[in-house]
Write a structure and sequence with these properties.
- This protein has four helices and four strands; from the N terminus they run E-E-H-H-H-E-E-H.
- By secondary structure, the chain is α+β, with helices and mostly antiparallel strands.
- The protein has one domain: Arc Repressor Mutant, subunit A (Orthogonal Bundle).
- Strands 1-2 form a two-stranded antiparallel ribbon. The protein has a two-stranded antiparallel sheet with strand order 3-4.
- Strand 1 and strand 2 form a beta hairpin.
- Helix 1 crosses helix 2 and helix 2 packs across helix 3.
- It is elongated and about 55 Å long.
Length: 113
């Protein structure tokens, strides 16, 4: 019968700035220590991922990544404290919102999955 599906994102001035996709790539950067590796994991080109990060930082008004230029062991990326906080807040908000939406769904539609 029915099932619940919804997307949640954050906007600034009516413009979408952060959601599941950017959150996912930031988590992958955190885990791999590399924007290039994170992009590869989701079949995105490095240039697309780089542009996404630049656009996000511009829209949000704060840096998300600390970039380390190459060298003997290569470069890498890590999340700024603001980036870490945003990912954590969004994940917690998303989890709580999903729970509340599922409760509302059950209230109005029963267990009609």
């Amino acid at each position: 019968m029915f099932s619940l599906n919804c997307k949640i994102w954050l906007e600034i001035g009516g413009q979408k700035v952060f959601g599941d996709g950017p959150c996912d790539i930031l988590k992958r950067i955190k885990n791999s220590g590399s924007l290039r590796m994170a992009a590869k994991e989701i079949n995105m080109s490095y240039s697309q991922a780089w542009q996404l990060m630049k656009n996000l930082e511009k829209k949000l008004g704060f840096p998300l990544l600390i970039k380390k230029v190459g060298g003997e062991f290569g470069g890498g990326s890590s999340l700024t404290p603001e980036g870490e906080k945003l990912v954590k807040q969004f994940e917690q908000f998303r989890e709580e919102a999903d729970g509340m939406l599922n409760e509302l769904f059950k209230k109005y539609f029963g267990n009609a999955t």
